[in-house]
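Q: For a teaching session next week I want to show students how multiple molecules come together into a single three-dimensional assembly. I've collected the sequence lines for a complex. Could you give me the predicted structure tokens for the whole thing so I can convert them for display?
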Amino acid sequence: MTEKIVDYIEQFVKLTDEEKQQVVSCFKEVKIKKRQFIVQPNFTTKHRNYVYKGAFRAYVVADEGQEHTINFAIDDWWITDYNSYIFQQPATMFVVALEDSIILQIDYEAEQELKRQNQKFETFFRIIAERGLAFQQRRIISNLIHTAEERYENYVVKFPQIVQRVPQYALASFLGMTTEFLSRIRNKRVAKKS
Amino acid sequence: MTEKIVDYIEQFVKLTDEEKQQVVSCFKEVKIKKRQFIVQPNFTTKHRNYVYKGAFRAYVVADEGQEHTINFAIDDWWITDYNSYIFQQPATMFVVALEDSIILQIDYEAEQELKRQNQKFETFFRIIAERGLAFQQRRIISNLIHTAEERYENYVVKFPQIVQRVPQYALASFLGMTTEFLSRIRNKRVAKKS
DNA sequence: CGAATTTCCTAAACTACTTCATTTTTAATC
DNA sequence: GATTAAAAATGAAGTAGTTTAGGAAATTCG
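A: Of course. Below is the structure for the complete assembly, covering every listed component.
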């Protein structure tokens, strides 16, 4: 169970046996039922969450009550209200389980301590922040350049596992369109194929 | 000149005199003329750039030749094709000077060395990556939630210095609308005020 | 299993934003 | 300081995507 997170970290920094132990002891395994929240607005986000198994959705609710999906996370991804976690301020997002899931949580103070103790962990968290930044940048570019239909087509190619696992309304609001419009796109596609 | 960058870094990590010297020696001052490019597609981005004085714009060119602004940077901000820099891969963006400017450049290898030598620098780069990530996240949310007009109004409030210094077409493409539409929003606003 | 709730589909009317084409204003350059 | 180029404004026509509303599938859960 916790081996998986060690493997994940070792993609970026090699660890000694003691270091592996040290990391593992910071993460706590938690089972989350479908529809359960792990982050809620106005509460400060205490954890960074690694999805061991399952699926989550982070979203905000706009003034008129419309939900907008910010992120998905499935097996082997991270999810939090990042803004809330790194600044230790009240969250603005919900993060909810889309399936029964298992996550590994590290809490804010433990993470700080880990980074203080050992440069390798500082490096690890620097690398994942940088990669996250580059990832977000690509998303911003994609949203600026492409039409709704193109965004969907690209996403299907890049993240087929996610498309299959999340409800349509969540995917539509992630891609910046209504669920009705996404439905139309999908059916147009099916019609074309046959 | 180089004091400014030391002050900037010290917002996040305190430095000894030797460390200050060490950082300063890694940055090279470069004058850039208006319309000059510091990043171009297909070339690997060798530098992270701190804007000492001036204004820059990062943009991509879509298939049909339309330009989409990804970022602006004025005094005291950083700008690069981040994706190209951190992965040391060919750039997809242009970064161009909007005014005669002065930047401080650190090159990729020097930055790696700095981080290897001293944990403080690893921490510094981790923090700015995290903050950048949180910032991008807020932009994605804003784009999902707000109409074109709201995006403009919010941006004027948050970044008035930038609105005044960059051309309208660049701002429009940053906010995800056409320059014609932004022109209309602005003129509607002026009409209201009088 | 069966009732209730959630998710998805369809279609027509509507609107926020784009496109195209022309004119005016501002800035760059010799 | 005149000439040229670039940027902004304006109007009219078009379209991508939304809204609203009603019904059909699919899931959930007692």
